[in-house]
Design brief:
mainly alpha; Farnesyl Diphosphate Synthase; 16 helices
Length: 323
């Protein structure tokens, strides 16, 4: 049950996907995005969930591939909407080819994801499709909320949390639940697995928001303060805006509405307001709340302790702490 072995199994299966087809302009971008790699977190935890319930890894592999192909499909379309030039240090698909090709290749990936799901055993196909369909729609809903927020100055904290639940967390929950489903895990445990994935995803995204401002840029692997410079309405910004009053509140909102402010000056002023309301500690409290919900779901699983350790080790790698 080694994480690296799961990754090897998934990467080998991705390499074996039949993408050497015509028209090449449609299928080459699919191979390109899938070959960019990454940690493959979602398919790894799906295989892991299947394994801890003594399920058949080969039976779960189509679901793992479906989740990973869908995830990368969503990245292609997200990059188009965000006008992102790079993905994992390489040109995005719409930059390497063009937006029309990226849209078509992404659409084809969604079809390929369903082709994989259709290989699941017949007795779990209907519930698997129900999980996948609901999750796919929710991810799209989350992306729409994210885009809507760019043009709104009245985004509430609860709305932001719901957006990251949909955009990021539900696919982790679905991956764990699908893995358990293939292994015939008890219905109650399927619910716990889903909750574990949701709350882990919430912790992951909130921690990502926090580390952008208060993390070590070398360890984090990203440029520090990127969210502030890009005017992203993160949890830190929304919480600070809610906590401020009067001119301070107006000034922070103005800083995030102004595209012309010198980045260094902007970061310094924003950090002043963040520190004034102690947003780092307040955000850490919210992260801890979601972590405790994940922890409760984890401990409710009806599996032996030695198998729980596998999930605990994985979350330590993902979040930097054990359950």
């Amino acid at each position: 049950m080694d994480q690296n072995r799961y990754l090897e199994v998934i990467n080998r299966a991705i390499e074996e996907l039949d993408l050497e087809k015509e028209p090449r302009g449609l299928y080459e971008p699919i191979r390109y995005i899938l070959d960019l790699g990454g940690k493959r977190i979602r398919p790894v935890i799906l295989l892991m969930a299947c394994d801890i319930y003594d399920g058949d890894e080969n039976a779960a592999l189509p679901a793992a591939l479906a989740v990973e192909v869908f995830h990368n499909f969503s990245l292609i379309h997200d990059d188009i909407m965000d006008r992102a030039p790079l993905r994992r240090g390489k040109p995005t698909v719409h930059e390497q080819w063009n937006a029309n090709t990226a849209i078509l290749s992404g659409d084809t990936m969604l079809v390929k994801a369903y082709e994989q799901l259709l290989q699941l055993p017949a007795h779990i196909l209907k519930p698997a499709l129900e999980i996948f369909n609901r999750t796919a729609a929710e991810v799209c809903e989350g992306q729409q909320y994210d885009m809507d927020f760019e043009d709104r100055d009245d985004v509430m904290l609860d709305e932001y949390l719901e957006m990251i639940r949909l955009k990021t967390a539900v696919l982790l929950g679905a991956a764990l639940k699908l893995g358990g489903l293939v292994a015939n895990a008890p219905e109650e445990d399927l619910d716990h697995l889903y909750t574990l994935g949701i709350e882990t995803g919430m912790v992951f995204q909130l921690k990502d928001d926090l580390l952008d401002t208060y993390g070590d840029s070398v360890l984090f692997g990203k440029r520090q303060y990127g969210d502030i410079v890009a005017n992203k309405k993160t949890y830190l910004y929304l919480l600070t805006l809610k906590s401020l009053v009067g001119k301070d509140r107006e000034m922070l909102a103005r800083l995030f509405a102004n595209q012309e402010t010198d980045p260094e000056v902007k970061v310094r002023k924003v950090l002043h307001y963040f520190d004034k309301v102690n947003v780092k500690e307040l955000t850490e409290r919210t992260i801890l709340e979601h972590y405790r919900k994940a922890q409760a779901a984890f401990h409710a699983l009806q599996i032996p302790d030695e198998k729980k350790q596998i999930l605990s080790d994985f979350t330590e790698m993902l979040l930097g702490r054990k359950f």
